[in-house]
Every structure is written in C-alpha cells, then in structure tokens.
Amino acid sequence: KDELLRKSEKLSIAGQLAAGIAHEIRNPLTALKGFVHLMSHSESYVQRFLPIMKEELERIELIISELLMLAKPQATQMKRVDLGLLLKEVLVLIDAQAILQNIVLEPNIRESYCYIQCDPNQIKQIFINFIKNAIEAMPQGGMIGVEMGVQDEREIRVRITDQGCGISEAQLRLLGEPFYSTKEAGTGLGMLVSYKIIEHHGGRIRIESSVGHGTTIEVFLPLAGFS
Ligand code: ADP
Ligand code: MG
C-alpha cells in the first residue's frame, strides 16, 4: 500500500485512541474536581465524597494500567510455564471475589505438564480479564467453568464458560474495539488487551455466545516443545 496513505491511517488511529483516552480520563477527573470544589466549601462533604473520590481515582489508575499493558514493548521475558499451575493460581486469586458475587468456579484442569512459552503475568492477565467479564455478566450469580485440555499435539485449549447475559452478534463484532463497554464502570480495554496478548503469544481465540444463556470463550495457545 502507498506509504503516505499508511502513515495517515496510522495517525488517524492514534488520534482516535488519544481522543478515547482523553475522554475516558476526563470524566473521572471532572467528577474529582467537582468534589474538591464542594469540599473546599464545607467539611461536611468530606465523609460523604471521599469514598466516591477513591473510586474515581482507582478508575483512572485502572485505565492507565490497561493502556500501559497495550503499550508494553513486545519483547517481554518469555518463560516455559505449566499452564495448569498458572490457571490454578489465577483461580485462587479470583475465588474470593467470585464467592462474594454468588459465583461458583468450576475448574476442570485434569491435564498436567502442559507447558507453554509465555510471559506468565500477561497470560494470567487474560484469564483474569475473561473470568472477571464472566462474573460481571452474572449479577445474580451462577457458575463459571474453567476447563483446560490438549487440543492436538501442538495446541492447548482453555475454555471459560459462563451462564451470564450473553453477547449479541452485533456486540460480538465490537469486542476488542478500544473503550467498547456496555458497563457503567467498564473501561472497554480488557478484551483489546487480551487479544493483543494472545496474538503476541501466537495463539487464537474463539467466542460463542447466546443472549440470555451465556458465553463460552476458548483460548488456544501453542504448546512448548520439550527442548
Ligand atoms: P469492560 O469489561 O471494561 O466492559 P471488556 O473489554 O473486558 O471491557 O469487555 C467489553 C464488553 O464485552 C463488555 O462491556 C461486555 O459487554 C462484553 N463482554 C465481554 N465478556 C463478556 C461475557 N462473558 N458475557 C457477556 N458480555 C461480555
Ligand atoms: Mg472486562
């Protein structure tokens, strides 16, 4: 393709991303400014607004950390990692939150010694993102299956199944667009970050969903050789 055209496309994508970031961060900042203004008028607002201010600050922090994940140089430290063990660590991390939301995690990780070549923190992050989305899709509670199995001799499959609200055809196409979120407090960066990480690891993802019934996300990652 024409070099100049490619450059201008890149610039316009950068511009869209910058506009999105500015917008996402300006909202909580505007709220914070309002609270500070009120507090400077009356001490009585402090008790009332401090917790909300803390939430807004945490939201900015989350957006920034997800953006940093996107911007990370691709040459990360790759290690040989037992995926089953990594998944178990993720489940321990997330279990307390799940219980609080009336969610039962149903792990089915029979296989052992399934190694992948990866940046373990990044791979943990994708499964945290998917399980969190599954939890958020089930405000009344429910079950989340986390299954790991060998797909063939080259690939390992992790399947995350929820019984949540599901995703429509039209919404499926929007997944991974920066800042696409249907949640009031969503950042709309989780899927984008996850797609990037999976791509970086030579893997792929498949999503199946039925509105009102639930969603299944399958991640395929290349098995590491025995060398
Ligand atoms: P966020 O979680 O901040 O909204 P994500 O990028 O993680 O951003 O997800 C984008 C959108 O994809 C969500 O707002 C939601 O509408 C949809 N989504 C993702 N996973 C699921 C799921 N398991 N069930 C239903 N909807 C989902
Ligand atoms: Mg999310």
Describe this structure in words.
This protein has 227 residues and is an alpha+beta fold. The protein has 6 helices and 7 strands; from the N terminus they run ααβαββαββααββ. Strands 2-4-5-7-6 form a 5-stranded mixed sheet, with helices on one face. A two-stranded antiparallel sheet has the order 1-3. Strand 4 and strand 5 form a beta hairpin. Helix 2 (44-71) packs parallel to helix 6 (190-200). The protein starts with a helix and ends in a 5-residue tail after the last strand. The mean pLDDT is 90. Magnesium ion binds at residues 129, 132-133, 190. This is histidine kinase. Residues 20-225 form the Histidine kinase domain. It comes from Paenibacillus gyeongsangnamensis.
Helix content: 40-55%
Strand order of the largest sheet: 2-4-5-7-6
Structure classification: alpha+beta
H/E element string?
HHEHEEHEEHHEE
Q: Strand content of the residues, in percent?
A: 15-25%
- Give the radius of gyration: 20 Å
Bound molecules: adenosine-5'-diphosphate, magnesium ion
Number of strands: 7
